[in-house]
Design brief:
heterodimer; A: about 450 residues; alpha+beta; Cytochrome Bc1 Complex, Chain A, domain 1; seven-stranded mixed beta sheet; 12 strands; globular; disordered N terminus; B: about 425 residues; six-stranded mixed beta sheet; five-stranded mixed beta sheet; about 45% helix
Chain lengths: ~450, ~425
C-alpha cells in the first residue's frame, strides 16, 4: 500500500547536467535550477529551426481535494483567459502573430503548457509563461463562460462509449484513490466550483518550485539560460504546497466485473490490471509484454483474436504507469455474433501463457528489436522529444533515459514470466463489457 | 525580437522513370525516420456505382500478402526495423527507423506490384470491416459527417463514403480486388516520394530495379464532374446523446482557385485561426461557451475537385439554434464588412510565420511532395507562399468571401437529439 504523499515530498533533488548527450535523440541535456526552485532543462538539438517550450507543473487531478475535483483541468483552460499584463486572448494572439502554436494538457500527476515557435522568436513563450505563472486574472465572467465549455467537453466524453467504459473500469480498479476519478471532474463538482476554489488551487500549486521548464530544439544553452533567468528569475516561490490527503491505493482483492449497455451493434471489452509505478524495472517488463501482445500484426493477441480465430475486429493494449501506481489495459471489440466468453478466454489464455511459458528466444529478439526501433519515433520532432523527456523528468527521473537501452535489454524471459505471474493475475483485474442495448 | 523569417529548406530530386513512375526524393541528413508515400491516381473516383469502397479495400488489403510472401513474412521483415506500411484508396504509405530505407522500399513496392489478395485474410478482414461499418452506421458524428457530404455532393462519388458501406464491402470477392488492382495500379499512374537520410541516386537505382517490368496502363480518363445545385437541404440522424453534431456548409473551391491565398486568410479570420483567434471560435466557444469543439473552413478540403465550406460544432441540443445562427451571421458579416486591420495582420502574420513549421516529420515532407506534384506546384512554391499570404488585403478577403461563401444556400446535417423541423428553423435564420 502506498500512503498519502505531499506534493512537496515528490519534488526531485537537483543534480544538474551540462551538455550530456541523450542517447538516440541527437540532443544534449543542460539542466539548471533557478534560485526560486524552477527547474530548467534545455534539450539542444539543432536541425529544424523550431523550439518547443513545455512548462510542467507537478500538480494534476491526483492532488485535488474532493471538492476541487476537475479544478486542475479547468484551470488549464483558464490559463488562456488573461493576466493583469496580457489581457484576455493575448496568449493566443501573441502565439498566432508569431506563427506559432500552443496547447496544454492535464493528467493525473501533472499539468503542462506547450508552445512551438520558430527558433528566432521562442522568447515570447517564456514571457507569456512567466507572466501567467503568477498574474492570472480569473475574471468571474470568463470563469462562467469557460465552465460551460468544460461541461460541453464533459458531455463530449459521455457520448463516447469507450471513454465511459474505461472510466468505470478505472474507478473500479483504483477505488477511491484519485486515479479512479476522471481528470475532467464531475458535473457535481464543476457546477458549484467557484473562482475562489480555483484561485486557492492556482496559488497553492503554480509555484516556480513546482515547475519544470523543458525547452527543446534549435537553441543556444547560454543565451537561453539568460532569457529564462530574465523572465522567471524574479518570481518568488510561495510556501510549499500543503499535504494532500487522499485514499491510498490498495492491493486488489479479487476480480471485479462491470457490464454496461450502449445503443449500437458493438460489444466492447476493457480489461485492466493493477500494476506498478513509472520507472520501475517492472515498467520495462510491461512495455515488452504490451508489444508482445498487441504491437504489430504478428503480436500474440492480434494474431489470435483478429487473424486466426476471427473473434475481434480490433484489439489493443497499453501499459499506463503513473507516479503512484499503474494499470495494464487490454481493449477489444468483438466481431458481432461471436461467443464473448470465448474472446475473454483467449485473452486469459494468452496472459496465462506469459506466466507459464518462457518467451521463445526468437520472439524475444523480435520484440526487443521492435521496441528499440520504435524509440526513433518518440523523438522525431522537438515537440515529441520535449514531451517524452518531460514526462519522465516530472513523474520519475529523466536520468533513466540515459541507461534506457541497458534497462530494456535487461528484460528477459524469466523476468517477464515473473512480472506476469505477479501482476497480470485474475485477482488484480477489472473486466468491463459494454454490450449492445439500451442504457439503463 | 527578431522578425527575420527562418527559411524552410526542402531539397528534392525529381525523376521520371522509363516506366512513367514519378519519383521524388528529399534528403535530410541525420533524420531518424525515412517515410515513403506511393500515390496511385484515381482512388475513389474509380469505384463503379454500387461498388463503393472497392478502391479503399484494394489499398487497405494490398499488404495481406504478395505472390512472393505472405503477410507474416512481410511484417516480420518490416516491424523489427520500426517499419510499417498502410494502404487506402490513395495508395500506400510507410515509414521505417534508422537506415532501413531499403527494406521499406522493397516491401512497399513488392506490395504495390504484386498484391495477391489471398482468400482467407481477405474474407476475415472483410468481416471485420463490415462489423466496423455496422457500428459506424449508429455513430452520430460519422453519420452527420457522411450525410453532410451527401447533401453537398449528391450522387457524385465525392458524396459517397470512401470506405463503402457494410453491404458493398461485404459483396466483394478476392477476385474483384485483384482485378481492380491489376486494372488501376500502374507505374505511369504513380507518384512515389521518399524522405529521410537517403541518397537520391541510390534510391532511384533501387526503385528502378524494383519497378522494372511493371506494366503501364496509360492515363486515366477523367469523368465530368456534376454536383447538385446549391440549396437549403438538410438531414437529421436522431439518436439519444448529450450532444448534437452539426455540419453546415456548401460546395467549395478547387486548389487551383485563383483566390486561394485570400481564402486561406479568410478562413483564419473566420473559423480556423489557432486558439480562439478566429471569429466563430471566439464567439461560439470563448464568449458563449457553447462548445469545446468548433471550427469552419473552406480551404482544407480543396483538391483537384471542389472541396466544401464546412462549419462544425458539437454542442448541447438547446444551443443548436444559436450555433447555426452564429455560423450564418459570421458568414454574412465577413461578406458585408471588411475585416479589421488587426484581424488581417494577425492572420497574415500567422500564415507567414508558421511556414517553417509543419515539416518536421518525414511523413509530412513525403505527403507534401506528393501533393505538390499532383497540383503541379513549382519548386519555389513553398518559398513564395508566405509572400502570397502577406499581400492579401482586407478587400481581397471580402471579395473572396462574397464570391465563395453562400450563407443563404447552405446544407445542414445534424445528429443526436434533433428534429428536421428544428434544423429547418435554425437554417432559416
Amino acid at each position: 500500500m502506498i500512503g498519502p504523499k505531499t506534493i512537496q515530498a515528490e519534488m526531485r533533488k537537483p543534480a544538474p547536467a551540462r551538455g550530456l548527450a541523450l542517447p538516440g535523440t541527437g540532443a544534449k541535456v543542460h539542466e539548471h535550477y533557478l534560485r526560486n526552485g524552477l527547474r530548467l532543462v534545455l534539450l539542444e538539438r539543432p536541425g529544424d529551426l523550431v523550439v518547443t517550450s513545455l512548462l510542467w507543473y507537478g500538480a494534476g487531478s491526483r492532488h485535488e481535494a474532493p471538492h476541487e475535483a476537475g479544478v486542475a483541468h479547468f484551470l488549464e483552460h483558464m490559463m488562456f483567459k488573461g493576466t493583469k499584463r496580457f489581457g484576455k486572448g493575448l496568449v493566443d494572439a501573441t502565439t498566432t502573430s508569431l506563427g506559432g502554436s500552443n496547447n496544454a494538457f492535464t493528467s493525473f500527476d501533472h499539468t503542462a503548457y506547450w508552445f512551438e515557435l520558430a527558433s528566432d522568436r521562442f522568447e515570447a513563450a517564456l514571457e507569456l509563461e512567466a507572466d501567467r505563472m503568477k498574474g492570472l486574472l480569473l475574471d468571474p465572467a470568463e470563469f462562467i463562460s469557460e465552465k460551460a465549455v468544460v461541461l460541453e467537453e464533459l458531455s463530449m466524453g459521455r457520448d463516447d462509449p469507450w471513454r465511459r467504459l474505461s472510466q468505470d473500469v478505472s474507478h473500479e480498479l483504483f477505488g477511491r484513490h484519485p486515479y479512479g476519478a476522471p481528470i475532467i471532474g464531475h458535473p457535481e463538482t464543476l457546477q458549484p466550483m467557484s473562482v475562489e476554489i480555483m484561485r486557492a488551487w492556482y496559488e497553492r500549486t503554480y509555484q516556480p518550485c513546482m515547475g519544470t521548464l523543458v525547452l527543446a530544439g534549435d537553441l543556444h544553452p547560454k543565451s537561453t539560460l539568460s532569457m529564462v533567468r530574465k523572465h522567471f528569475g524574479s518570481i518568488e516561490s510561495g510556501p510549499a504546497p500543503a499535504p494532500v490527503l487522499c485514499a491510498p491505493l490498495r492491493e486488489p482483492e479479487g476480480e471485479r466485473r462491470i457490464e454496461k449497455r450502449w445503443d449500437d451493434a458493438a460489444s466492447r471489452l476493457v480489461m485492466a490490471y493493477s500494476t506498478v509505478s513509472v520507472g520501475t524495472d517492472q515498467d520495462f517488463d510491461l512495455d515488452l509484454i504490451d508489444t508482445l501482445l498487441t504491437g504489430g500484426r504478428v503480436s500474440r493477441l492480434y494474431k489470435r483474436l483478429v487473424l486466426t480465430d476471427g473473434l475481434a475486429t480490433m484489439v489493443g493494449s497499453s501499459s499506463d504507469t503513473r507516479m503512484e501506481g499503474g494499470a495494464f489495459w487490454i481493449n477489444a471489440e468483438a466481431v458481432p455474433g461471436v461467443d464473448l466468453a470465448e474472446l475473454e478466454r483467449v485473452i486469459e489464455e494468452e496472459i496465462t501463457r506469459l506466466a507459464d511459458e518462457p518467451i521463445p528466444a526468437k520472439e524475444m529478439r523480435r520484440v526487443q528489436r521492435t521496441l528499440r526501433s520504435g524509440d526513433a519515433f518518440e523523438a522525431e520532432t522537438v515537440s515529441d522529444l520535449a514531451e517524452w523527456f518531460g514526462g519522465f523528468a516530472v513523474d520519475a527521473d529523466w536520468r533513466m533515459l540515459l541507461d534506457w537501452e541497458e534497462r530494456r535489454a535487461a528484460v528477459n524471459a524469466k523476468r517477464v514470466r515473473a512480472t506476469a505471474r505477479q501482476l497480470l493475475t485474475r485477482e488484480r483485474r477489472v473486466v468491463g463489457w459494454s454490450l449492445p442495448g439500451k442504457e439503463s | 525580437m527578431s522578425t527575420k523569417l527562418p527559411k524552410l529548406h526542402l531539397p528534392k530530386q525529381r525523376y521520371v522513370l522509363p516506366n512513367g513512375l514519378v519519383l521524388i526524393v528529399s534528403r535530410r541528413e541525420g533524420a531518424p525516420i525515412t517515410a515513403a508515400r506511393l500515390m496511385m491516381r484515381g482512388g475513389t473516383s474509380q469505384d463503379p456505382a454500387g461498388k463503393e469502397g472497392l478502391s479503399w479495400m484494394v489499398g487497405r488489403l494490398a499488404d495481406q500478402g504478395t505472390h512472393q510472401h505472405d503477410e507474416a513474412e512481410l511484417v516480420t521483415r518490416l516491424e523489427p526495423c520500426g517499419g510499417s506500411i498502410a494502404g487506402n484508396q490513395s495508395g500506400l504509405s510507410g515509414s521505417v527507423a534508422g537506415d532501413h530505407w531499403k527494406v521499406l522500399l522493397e516491401t512497399l513496392l513488392e506490395v504495390a506490384r504484386h498484391a495477391a489478395y489471398p482468400n482467407d485474410p481477405v474474407r476475415m478482414h472483410q468481416r471485420r470491416f463490415q462489423a466496423r461499418l455496422e457500428v459506424e452506421q449508429e455513430d452520430p458524428r460519422s453519420q452527420a459527417a457522411q450525410r453532410f457530404r451527401h447533401l453537398v455532393y449528391g450522387k457524385h462519388w465525392m458524396g459517397r463514403p470512401a470506405h463503402g458501406t457494410a453491404e458493398t464491402i461485404g459483396a466483394f470477392t478476392p477476385k474483384d480486388l485483384l482485378d481492380h488492382h491489376r486494372s488501376h495500379w500502374a507505374p505511369d499512374r504513380a507518384i512515389l516520394s521518399v524522405c529521410g537520410d537517403v541518397d537520391p541516386g541510390q534510391v532511384k537505382k533501387l526503385v528502378q530495379r524494383l519497378t522494372r517490368g511493371w506494366q503501364q496502363l496509360g492515363p486515366l480518363t477523367a469523368s465530368k464532374s456534376r454536383f447538385p445545385k446549391d440549396g437549403n437541404r438538410l438531414d437529421a440522424f436522431k439518436k439519444s446523446r448529450d450532444q448534437v453534431h452539426v455540419f453546415l456548409g456548401h460546395l467549395g473551391v478547387r486548389r487551383s482557385e485563383p483566390d486561394w491565398a485570400s481564402l486561406v486568410v479568410m478562413d483564419h479570420i473566420l473559423g480556423t485561426g489557432p486558439g480562439f483567434t478566429a471569429r466563430i471560435t471566439k464567439r461560439l466557444r470563448d464568449e458563449q461557451g457553447l462548445a469545446y469543439s468548433v471550427y469552419a473552413d473552406i480551404h482544407g478540403t480543396a483538391g483537384r475537385l471542389p472541396g466544401c465550406f464546412q462549419a462544425y460544432i458539437g454542442t448541447s441540443p438547446q444551443h443548436v439554434h444559436t450555433a447555426v445562427g452564429g455560423f450564418l451571421e459570421e458568414m454574412r458579416r465577413i461578406q458585408d464588412e471588411t475585416v479589421s486591420k488587426a484581424e488581417l495582420k494577425l492572420a497574415r502574420d500567422y500564415l507567414v510565420g508558421s511556414s517553417p513549421l509543419g515539416f518536421e516529420r518525414a511523413s509530412q515532407r513525403a505527403a507534401y511532395l506528393v501533393t505538390a506534384e499532383v497540383y503541379g506546384h513549382a519548386d519555389d512554391h513553398l518559398s513564395k507562399l508566405p509572400g502570397q499570404f502577406a499581400s492579401v488585403t482586407a478587400k481581397m478577403v471580402r471579395d473572396a468571401a462574397r464570391k465563395h461563401l453562400r450563407p443563404d444556400r447552405c446544407c445542414l446535417s445534424a445528429s443526436g437529439p434533433v428534429t428536421k423541423q428544428g434544423l429547418r428553423r435554425a437554417l432559416a435564420q
